[in-house]
Amino acid sequence: MKIPRIMIAGTHSGVGKTTITTAILSLFTKAGLNVQPYKVGPDYIDPTYHSTATGNKCRNLDSWILGEQAVRQFFINSATKADLAVIEGVMGVFDGSSGNSDTGSSAHIAKLLGCPVVLIVDVKSMARSAAAIVLGFKNFDPRLKIAGVILNRVGSQRHLGLVTEAIETYCNVPVLGYIKKNAKLELPSRHLGLVPTVEGGSLLEKISGLSEEIREGINTDGLLKAAQSAGELSHGDWDEFTPAANNQQKARIGIAMDEAFSFYYEDGLEILKKKGAELIPFSPLHDNALPPDLHGIYIGGGFPEIFLKELSVNGKLKKEIYDAGSAGLPIFGECGGFMYLNESIIDFEGKDHPMIGLIPGKCIMERKLVGMGYVTARCMTDNIIAPAETQIRGHEFHYSRFEPNDNKQEFSYAFELTRNRVGGKAFDGYACNNILASYLHTHFGSDTGLADCFVEKCRQFKLTQI
Questions:
Q1: Which domains are present in the chain?
Q2: Could you tell me the pTM of the whole model?
Q3: Which of 179, 145, 147, 151 is nearest to 164 (CA)?
Q4: First to last CA, the chain
Q5: Nearest alpha carbon to residue 109 among 54, 55, 160, 66
Q6: Which positions are catalytic?
Q7: What is the mean pLDDT of each run of 10 residues along the chain (466 residues)?
Q8: Residue 132: left (phi > 0), alpha (psi -120 to 50), or beta?
Q9: What sections of 31-154 are H helices per DSSP?
């Protein structure tokens, strides 16, 4: 099948990928195209900007967590419904899970999907040297098709002419756009990166303004031509979406969804639904009661540390969640959800904020990253998403550390983690009865048996309530 598609990648982190990609998505959407956005890697915040710009839910493509077959199928399932697929890369185009493999990198995804790449290059304080950079990226892996270049932080028209002449002469790659050095291309940020769009504000207007800021310098016709040059993609026979045999028995799962908790993979949620979950949103910030007749709760990641006062004072909802978990309701928490389920969170100033209390411990905010990167988690015991010894691929990204109240030798840790970046092993999370929570971010697409197990645990609880 023919799917017009491009990847907007960069030479390194901080080159302007997210802001420029978001602005380009807005330009194409304003032009009347139905644009399906994607983000390479384990990212929750950048996709919210893409979704706002296009009106379509952004999907994550991660070859290390999901594997090649799942990435390909997830992409095809959603891209076929659009006029154009635009993928934002991660870090530098060749940066992935290791130094001698492209697994997890933008390059891996681009080659897997036969996707032309448009490379963003920061050309501040250089001219002809930019050609050497582009040529190096082009020759590093000839299997990668670099279809064009976008120049960021261009100082003047003369500067633009020098850089363009050098790249097009020595690299045989067209310059498809440029961004002026003084362009006002900023999106709000904080310690975990950009601010999620769920926190409100005039983001749509700001994104529209970004697209107008770059309109003059972007060759949208050239980008579209590059996207249309992509070859055919064949629909695979991946059958991991096969519904469970008893999925006609729906399980009502409450899902925390507000400014404090919004980190979920869209394809992961779709898998839960296909396995029989009816996802019922609720807000730990604004609701004083859970939705009725729940058979499980899913609390994803987010920014609970930004809303500690509001979460702490919502005592009625906290007690309801505590009572439900104590009564055996399956509760699954990831990162921010894990923090929320603890007895308390200690903020950056050392102040204690009481939380739900289902986990006997506290999370303490630190000024620097405590955990970041891909991890493989081994289940220490049977839990609500997998049997003991199951290996789960995921990632962690958090500024807090967990301190259990109990003796660490006897604490009911959920996982033994193997960290890709730093090596070594560490224990993480909490698993006891029907409570499972940890810093681990999972994707149900990495092993759809995790979704089967979670939904089935919720169904089993449902039967006890009849």
A1: 5-228 (3.40.50.300), 251-464 (3.40.50.880)
A2: 0.93
A3: 151
A4: 48
A5: 66
A6: 335
A7: 96 94 97 98 93 96 96 95 97 92 95 98 97 98 97 97 98 97 68 49 81 93 98 72 62 97 97 97 98 98 96 98 98 98 97 98 96 96 98 97 83 93 84 98 97 98 90
A8: alpha
A9: 46-54, 63-66, 68-79, 106-112, 129-140
